[in-house]
Amino acid sequence: MERPDTLLFTLTGRDRPGVSSQVFSTLAGFGVDVLDLEQIVLRGRLILGVLTSVPDNLPALQGAIATAAAELGMNIEIERGTGDTKIERTGRCHVTVIGVPLTAAALAGVTQRIREAGANIDRIERMARYPVTAFELALSGADVDQLRAQLAVLAAEQSVDIAVQPASLLRHGARLIVMDVDSTLIHGEVIEMIAAHAGFEAEVAEVTERAMRGEIDFEESLRARVALLKGVPASALDEVYNAIELNPGARTLVRTLRRLGYRFAIVSGGFSQITDRLAQDLGIHYARANELEIVDGVLTGGIVGEVVDRAGKARALREIAAEIGIPEEATVAIGDGANDLDMLSAAGLGIAYNAKPLVRSQAGTAINVPYLDTILYLLGIKREEIEAADAAAGVVTPAPPI
After folding, report:
1. What is the pTM of this model?
2. Domain that holds residue 123
3. What is the pLDDT of residues 298-312, one digit of tens each?
């Protein structure tokens, strides 16, 4: 019989303090090397896997580890292996699944598509249980583009959000986050709020909707809408700003990523008179938007300078990334309208946030739950880590339901 090169010990049972200590103390008595190690605790149940070299006195080690497991009240399995213990992991990627709720049927579909793609699930971690349920699956052996296309169809069928990202060192470094403003960072459209002061809210809203769906040219539509604002007093902008509602999770998203050294930019087809104040309020580093022309305290119905349109948003992302020395692959863009598509495409990770159908269909990743901080889970940050950092800083967060 061929002598084994490795031993895999798998212990399962009720978790309690001292399990790992007793196991490794037992192994230490036989002078083995630890080649691999994994441990998870799920609802108080421990699974501990230890891959070791083989000692000279193999029967004695098997007996000792079995005794240790019995004393701990745990089950033990011992597998012998031969050959190279290193597994080459290619086609590595992260799949994030988000649902409200997240059903077994949705997860069954995800795992089936992964199996059909010939990929292997190496690890599963829960990212959040409230206000959404989110899991991250680490895969190997995947064709990322093929898997993304298959899971996009499943996401629509099961009404869940699924993001597929290649595993990359960039995921662990500081990145640039570039966000749209209207209907992304904030609820609603600023231009419609201003138009209400001129009595043209309905007319402006109709044109805005068509522009966001990509049915009409953005710059043309913007100039036509702004022309309707002629005569509105500049003081109305203060009223509009005070009425703005941030989308849920906006402050948490910015606060958390700033702690990690991320840089933020808001790039908007809206107006600098609003976006500059938003940037100052939230601690956002850069802001690009259109400037409303104001003469003698009144809006003229015109725009000063070049319009920030679809191409302008992508250009702003590239310029800001170059200014701070961050590669485009390390940028994240978030938007909801057709004028965000170039920006989403230019970014390393483009996220359609509660977007129009056209945008969802063309973006690599879509989030359809109304929580901006859900994006943190796509970056590998867990809800528990966010709340722990907030608690340490004295930030009070709502308690999850029991």
Report:
1. 0.85
2. 93-167
3. 999 999 999 999 999
